[in-house]
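Run log, item B.
One chain of 446 residues. Sequence copied directly from the ordering sheet:
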Amino acid sequence: MADGGVRDVVVIGGGVAGLAAARDLADGGADVVLLEARGRLGGRIHTLYDPAYPLPIELGAEFVDVPGPAFDAIRTMGGAAYRSTGGAWDVADGIATCLDLDDSIARILGRLDPPPERDQPFAQWLAECCADEDEQARSLVQRYVEGFHAAELDRVGVQWLARTMQGSGGGGGPVRHHPLGGFGLAVRGLAARLGGRCDVRLGAIVSAVDWRRGQAEVRCRTRFGAALEPVRARRVLVTLPLGVLQAPEGSGGAVRFSPALDGKREIVSKLAMGIVVKVTFRFREPVWDDALEWRGDEAGTREHKFLMASGDIPGWWTPSPVEAPVLTAWAGGGAARRLLARGGDPAARALDDLAALLRLPVARVQESVADWRRHDWHADPFARGAYSYVPAGALLAQQALAEPVEDTLFFAGEATAEDGWNGTVDGAIHTGERAAKEILRSLASP
């Protein structure tokens, strides 16, 4: 331990950004304390292992980039991944029609290359720029931007979308991978690298950071409100999700900084935290396979992977090419907000939608469901949303959020990841690694 009980670094948040940073800081010889509010590590990776399910249940992140640092962590735990290609279908009233989703996306979003000189919300740009495109293509791209980026179409900026299309960020594309043993293996792999060299404290809810240049005291409490011993450190790494950074002072999960970080608060207010509704259903049998009429797949070789619709739930996916009676419902951004505004149980709404898509009685679909799982990330005080995106006019906000304050407070997490890496596990890991380098350089400076 550093002199006088003062640690070198306290890391706030035990998601993959915090874990990656703690690993690299420990590798660099720093004395590190990691504080995590939940009783588990992983943040917005939350994998359940239920023997009744044929595959792990991913309540949060699900698709993994191969190759990439998250997959590397999975492999250290003996894990693997399986791939899917294509398999997108437009579904309505019992008929599934083959889609070239990537072509529609490339054709319309390709108009963002070169990036527009004027930043504006995507909905406005689409109306002005793409009136010549057919309605189906425009609808598919709208659903893609809402779903993939968890974004509001009248907020997300086209200059940022252009940057994500041109950047090196992961996710999407014609080839996708699922962690075969669950994304929880990535968390375990990162945590295993700490090897007892980091003081990890679960159930420690950070409430306040009192700081001055080169020194900080981090105060925390238990879930029951009891005060825990403060942690004093020379440097603080904040990996809190954007939604928590945006939370009003005094609300659940919010952290008070003293002196206040007025500049950071202004930057944080420019960014947006996306909303997602995700429900994973386990069926007794895959009712969609026989109920739908699959058109445009004469050879019978195309995967039944993504089912695109126009109802409350715009997207569904299966574990294809793995054969299992599991179907995931997904609504992101504006679609999720509209679904939640209607009230009621999102799982029930999803099954109503599915019955209409399959042209089956609702009771028939409900009878086929053996179980379902969902986590409300929007209501979770330690997440307050799914993942971030950049509204029009805020193109530089991610970089500004990542900037250290007085060589004492440092920032990481997916909301600080640029070039399309936000919203990805790999992006979060990259930011933790970047922040660890900044902190080690700072600690080594006279």
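Observations after the first pass:
- The mean pLDDT is 95.
- The first strand starts at residue 7 and ends at 12.
Flagged for discussion on Thursday.
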